[in-house]
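Researcher: Good morning. I'm working through a list of sequences from a screen, and I'd like to move beyond sequence-only analysis. For each chain I'm collecting a predicted structure so we can compare shapes side by side. This is the next one on the list. No need for commentary yet; just the structure.
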Amino acid sequence: MATNTLKKTYPVLEMTCAACAVSVESILKAQKGVVDANVNFASAKVAVEFLPNTIQAAELKKAMQDGGYDLLIEESPHIDETVETLQQAKFQQLQSKTYWALGLSAPIVVIGMFFMEMPYANEIMWVLSTPMIFWFGKDFYVNAWKQARHRNANMDTLVALSTGVAYLFSVFNTLFPHYWHERGLHAHVYFEAAAVVIAFILLGKLLEEKAKGNTSTALKKLMGLQPKTVTIVQNGTQHIEIPLEQIAIGDTVLVKSGEKIAVDGTVISGSSYIDESMLSGEPVPILKQTNDKVFAGTINQKGSFHFKADKVGSETLLAQIIRRVQDAQGSKAPVQKLVDKIAGVFVPIVMIIALVAFAVWYFLGGENGFTQGLLAMVTVLVIACPCALGLATPTAIMVGVGVGAEKGILIKDAESLELAQKVTAIVLDKTGTITEGKPVVTNEFWTEENEEFKQILLGIEKQSEHPLAAAVVSHLQNYQSITISNFESMTGRGAKAIVNQQTYFIGNKRLLEENHIAFDESVNQTAQQWSSEAKTVVYFTDSQKVIAVFAIADTIKASSQKAIEALQNMGLEVYMLTGDNAITAKTIAEKVGIQHYKAEVLPEDKANFIKALQAEGKTVAMVGDGINDSTALAQADVSIAMGKGSDIAIDVAKMTIISSDLQKISEAIRLSKATVSTIQQNLFWAFFYNVIGIPIAAGILFPINGFLLNPMWAGAAMALSSVSVVSNSLRLKWQ
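Model: Good morning. Structure tokens for this chain:
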């Protein structure tokens, strides 16, 4: 990427087909200062990367308007609502036009098919079809003219040419029938073909727009999680309701029963169960108490509480998720780049085929050669559909990314969604991925148990900064601590303190040996047993004897074993890497059923290990949660971060599992397979339709069985091809 570039995503107006998307890209890329431009036809948005010192957004907008399109460059928090309002208005206008067009074309078809011999039949059809061309079909001609002025052609060009030629030919035959009669030919009119083609294409566009609207329902759901207003507390007691945009970091927010949480923050008083299912995909509400984190868009259950706003606006987790889903839905899968090239040359090729069909009929079609050639040319222009090709990939990507978001799987771009189904090996970091990532007390053994000792121990550990001390504090959280004097941390061994003239120690075996503290056989056997299970043993003693022994370990997540089994059942090779010692690595690997593992691995070793697997021809996915995993994540073909891990790991990774549940990885791979399969089906049918439809429209079957395709059925087939592609993509919602 060029230095000092700006990346922006703008809604594009006036795009009518896949060839338009290619045209928009070409216009933007031709502007001086534009580094790259990617259009998503399905979402009607363009991602532009440009040099702000060379070109401004207003200049991009002007270039688009000169090309017959438009950009919405206004930056406001309500831009998506503005776009939706415009799209809704356009949809309603299209709906009204379609219904009127269908109603008006019906009598034209009835006359054209059954009452051609009635008096003034041609004139009546002429009168009825004129508003079809100049009112309901006006946009096709206006857009086609805009394209022609810039030496471009798109779907509107095909529709305008086919219906315009059919209409003008029919008007000529109505006004000057004797021209044909003098040559012994009947003066055929095709008003019904022109009218029905416009009606069918409008109906196809209506169904397509409706289906495209359904592809972004996941995003709309996420956006709907943001409340419009928030109640803040001032001066300790005063409650003020303000718009969401006005909230500031540090504000105290009141959340009542059943309300949505507006921004990210930390609970400062009260407690409640929070439904975080829309962020994590986990259905069970989570208890939130003082010092716990809460996130925008999650729903409070029954209690009420106050929290301090930590992140607002675009910095909240929900806003980042929405942004990532938008970026991913707008990104292009590698296969789409090939499709774009095809769509770009598709319309000119179709126009050439239509002219060739006309010429062949004219010279070889006998006395009706001109009429049949004209009909074949119109039918070829009508049946060709680049839209099905243009919609095949982006609609599947949009639905796939949306389904992932609903399940708590954040997918950063289309490439990783397409690539995940090719994964053959998956590398898992241990800490925070397979395990919880924080030490807890798993076992305790007291030689002399009373509450005072527990209070003393809690008091000592509260002053210690060692990570293992936090595990003991959490374990004894139901007890009251007592004040400790003369606390001393002893690096690499533990800590000591004096309470009521008695010295107490908390630490490892070396600390006991240095201070000549005795321990009996039962304590020794218990400690050895826990050590063999890869647990860290901590002793609590007075100046003479051991009072208690604790086993501390990073516990395995409840879902890890099932998740790893599911990955292995999918035929994936599963590897575990850890910086921990060999005994711990072996114990964890055996418990979760992993055969391949490496211990005492440094961060750079993880990336090298992945390189070695890739050198063997494997497609590798890396799953991690820490800063130390970021190099390996960048090296992997597919990188997956645990949502409760470091910001750097999440930034580098192409996918994020919000709930940190390993079982979501197999779901992500299954979703990838289903999405790629849908793209392949869509592309097959889009190509198959055009490869079969265009020759039939040209009249290739006529010498064999006398079959000629009517232009109105060609219009119906073209509309159906786009609708079928979008409908097939929507099936992903039920994966």
